[in-house]
TrEMBL record:
A matching Pfam family: DUF1759
Membrane spanning residue stretches: none
Descriptive protein name: Peptidase aspartic putative domain-containing protein
Amino acid sequence: MAPTLDQLIVKRTTIKSKFTRIQTFVNSFNANSNIHLLKTRVTLANQAFQEYNSIQDEIDLLLDRSDKALIEKHLEYREEIENKYCEIIATIESKTESRDDAQTSNSGNHAPFAHLPPIAPINIKPFSGCYKEWLTFTNTFKSIIEDNSYKLTDCQRFQHLRSCLEGEAKRSIEQLEASDENYQEAWKILESRFKNTRLIVQDHMLSILKLPSLSKASHYAIRELLDTIIRNVTALKQLDIKIDEWHALIVPIIIEKLDYVTIRDWQATLDKDVPTYSSLIIYLEKRYRTLESISLINNKTNTPQTSNANQSINKKPRAVAHVATSKDSNCLYCDKIHSIYHCPEFRNLSSQQRFNFTKKLNLCTNCFRSNHKTQTCFSKSRCRECGEKHHTLLHRDGPENSETQHVNSVVNHSLFNLKYTVILSTALILIKNAQNKYIQCRALLDSGSMSNYITTSLCKKLGLKQNPIHINIGGIGKTKSNIKYSTNVEIKSRYEKFSANMNCLILDQITENLPLARIDPKHLVIPNDKLLADPMFYDPGPIDILIGAGLFWELLCPNENSPAGELKLEATQLGFIVAGSLNVPHSGNLNTSSGLSITLTSVLEKQVEKFWELEQCRTVCTRLTDEELKSENHYKLTTNRAADGRFIVKLPFVNNPPILDSNRKNALRQFYNLERKLVKKPDLKADYSKFMREYKLLNHMEEVPLSEIENQKVTYLPHHAMFKESTSTKLRVVFNASSKSENSQTHLIAAKSRIAPLKTITLPRLELSAALLLTRLMNVVSQVLHMEINRKYFWSDSTIVLAWIKGTPASYQTFVGNRISEIQTLSPKDGWYHVKSEDNPANIISRGCTPENLKNNSLWWHGPHWLNQNYSEWPIQNVNLETVETPERRTISLLSSETPTVELPILTKFSSYKKTERVLSWVLRFINNCKNPNSKNLANHLLTEELQNSKFTIARQLQKTTFQNKYNRHLARF
């Protein structure tokens, strides 16, 4: 049984008493006493400090997180113990060192040269010439070398000085020889060169100004920031810079480097006065301690509890530091203040080296902790590359010695310098399509590729059959792409009778347009009698197909009579090169240093691998819930065996019985039905009355007081009479414990919220986005539940949103219309209702709520109280949505134009159509004679053709007047 909080506090008090006894002994230790008695106290203090840490960690886990005062009290207690532990260790070391020094000085009386230290370099940080390190170096060197108890000569000091210099500082005194006179000369040179107050101040200020800004608060980041600021400000004070008068300048500079949360909390502590530098440092120190404590508590909380046996087995000795630090905050690889997965040195290792390091330290390969194995890791994080249970930093692309075949290819095109470019071999070829017709395409000839490629667009254009295939292509820098299809193509030359069949892998794009930049052909000297494979090679263009080395050498060496499957020998300036396709068995992997690596895995191998993955029996660790553990403990404690061999188990009872819904009306209704039945059967009624009286006399039931009738902690069990002639007891009363209650129950199944975007948008738009989120959540929950839902009700407290949903999406602007359309697709229009804001559970999460209040909030977990009632009793408000003013309606601009029509006066001058027709014919003849004076003019009577033309003219004019809009589109051509 785990210890309680009070028991742990008692243990902690005992350990504190042990620290007090150790401290009392150490303080009263006499220099003449046995020094070993003092050293044994170090072991006792270390053991006590380890016990205290484990007990305090258990106390932290049991504390109430909402009680901030209690947490602060325990943090102060922890700090007090740590300080006492450090004082004990420091006092012991001080007394031990003073005892050793005394013994050394006594022995020096018998060794006249023992006081002379060796000329080896003193353990002082070398000075390289950095201005801001000058003061620290000079103070340290003089306190150790010049102001010590040893009698060193200036020559010896000069040797020590030279050993503590490097870089520019060391070069400045290299010309001096080691002598007593040159020691002071060396100091003068160094002071004249590096004792520059202006540059020192400037260097310290730049160190503060160039501090990196914190994006997120963490205890180690704030500690590093604090150390840098304090170190540089202290140096400025040593230079007599009145930093205390710079509050208005130095404080904003430091504030600018902090994260948002820290700045916000700092501003909350300020009043109208200008904050001082010291107050800011005090605040940051407190902030650091708080974050460090939270980090320690979180690390302990996330650590799964193991048994004491496992702890004793896995427990390893470790060195105890003299200053209490958090081991979790130090990197396990470089021992600096950051986590191991943020360590740049650890990240620079290969994945295999990182894996070997974690195995060497017995770390979990999933979360890099040392207190559990990978199989028992509770972290839900997985590798982002493959999804397996290991850290992403340990992911390996694949085994180095695989049994698959690696086909390597490379597209060697680059443009390293804009002053020149490289022309790759391209050609225009003919390729056969599915209709046995040849289409011209552009090909790239690549001798470094073992495969041929074709683009997806060309394959679809040709109508070729695509064969499924499993191929992974690994490129330069271990980039990967997956190829799923291949095809067979037939190509031939545009000039020669050459033709060939080849298998091509299908890619979306082979390479960029080649060449990368257009080349002016005027600068190229090409003989005119040469037939170019690609006449427009100098213009950038797409590559449709890539021909690899299997066919490349046959194209390049047409006169070579080597049979298919034989190697080609080509003379070069480097010697004969061997290339070509090879149809012979081979062993091992075909790995080269080319840019693209293609791994071919057979389909059969994939199927066998998938089979074993499906058939593998995985061990599932079942964990019992709290209720199951209580049931098991109850069975163990209350089970016993009777004398007759039967097992007797005590019935378990629930300590906190659930609140049952009222079923009194249902029980009364069934009782009235029973009475009506008994009235029709007097004999049965008599037996029933006798049974109930006997039941009451035996104290099996009693009359319910009137005050308890409406008690919500009471449930009613309806009963009915069962009659059976064949039994000795003909009538039995049966109680129905499974009777349903009157009201339904409502419980929260799922909830979803989103933070409002940074860009300011209107409240109706936010409410509409919330309604859309509700429909999406309802759609997902409906699919997951796998149960029949009779009707869905959607609620919103925004009348504008309800009016939008009832409307037409096309009537509103794009943002609103798109969301209305999706809402209407996922939910019915008539399924949306208005709810008051005080009855809307969504307002709880949008307006904020503490975890303590949320835990007991009935509105959040069960909804408004009226949901348990019948539909007729719901306070559904009939909101008149037609009167709601809906914003963001789409505005439509209409433009109307009116073209005046001109009618011929002659059409309205005469009342007779025949007369109008003849008059118009004479007018048209006159117009024709005027236009053509040299032609033979008509002067006699009207012709039939002229009368017909007049009729068409009248009809055309009437159409223009009556059908003005349609005339231009349909009748103008007649």
